[in-house]
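Input chain follows. Return structure tokens only.
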Amino acid sequence: MKSIVFLLLCAISLNAQTIKSSGTHFVDGIKDKSWSNTNGENFTNAKFKSYSGSCYALLEVDETVEVSFHAFSEIKAGRLEFKLIDEKENQYFYCSATKECELLKDVILEKGKKYKLLFTGANANGNYEVTWKIRKK
């Protein structure tokens, strides 16, 4: 019985999540008429009206991994920009949209670093969704 429990714990630790996400964090007084968002272990999304300002989801990794990002935004009015940056403001991907933007990008995230998925709106109506998954080697 002990060996079965040990094997289960080993299997769980091998599949453990290596990306911790938290957010949505708002920067410098967001303006909007309607905002709703959801965050999970491997995604962040939001719907908004008249959104101006910046917000971000924080990603932290406990081991260096290659991560596949899929980002999509649909904008009916205004502009939305989104990007992935690290603590030193190095940019890993970027998209600016007044209608639609879809982005697929594989990125190496390094152990111990913090990354921001940063979203900046200028009177934007629409939505965004970013999902990510660790690529298996």
